[in-house]
Amino acid sequence: MKKLIVLVMAFVSVFLLADNQLANLRGDTPLDAEAEPPKMQAVENNDLKRERAYPQQAPTIPHDISGYQVDLNFNRCLACHSRKKADEAQAPMVSITHYMNREGQFLVDVSPRRFFCTQCHVTQQEVNPLIENTFVDMDTLVKGEE
């Protein structure tokens, strides 16, 4: 029981602000009042490849995908990123691992288990973090720098 309490206290202390208030998305809005939601920021649309923070991280999507159809019938992402279309579209081809089934056999088309791109890949927005973040990427961590 003591270990659980220490763990919870450590977790909560990460989210405490300088004035010992618990950081939250409501800000100063009282619990009995409706908070004004922040305005939606524009999706980053610069087609610049972002660095990955850890090995095997799915690359982020560097362009707007609003209105893209990705369902059982069609995947708009593959119109540019499939093996057949990547050169023509001058887009990076999806990883060869996306063409493998669970047994490691290569398929002609993208594996059904990798068909829904937004399960792993997300667009980005240029916004300030809601809570201070002390995340250290894998390369920095391995080098011992902080």
TrEMBL record:
GO terms for cellular component: periplasmic space. Heme c 2 binds at H98, C117, C120, H121. Binds 2 heme C groups per subunit. GO terms for biological process: anaerobic respiration. InterPro entries: Multihaem_cyt_sf (IPR036280), NapB (IPR005591). GO terms for molecular function: metal ion binding. Belongs to the NapB family. Component of the periplasmic nitrate reductase NapAB complex composed of NapA and NapB. Electron transfer subunit of the periplasmic nitrate reductase complex NapAB. Receives electrons from the membrane-anchored tetraheme c-type NapC protein and transfers these to NapA subunit, thus allowing electron flow between membrane and periplasm. Essential for periplasmic nitrate reduction with nitrate as the terminal electron acceptor. This is Periplasmic nitrate reductase, electron transfer subunit. It comes from Gynuella sunshinyii YC6258.
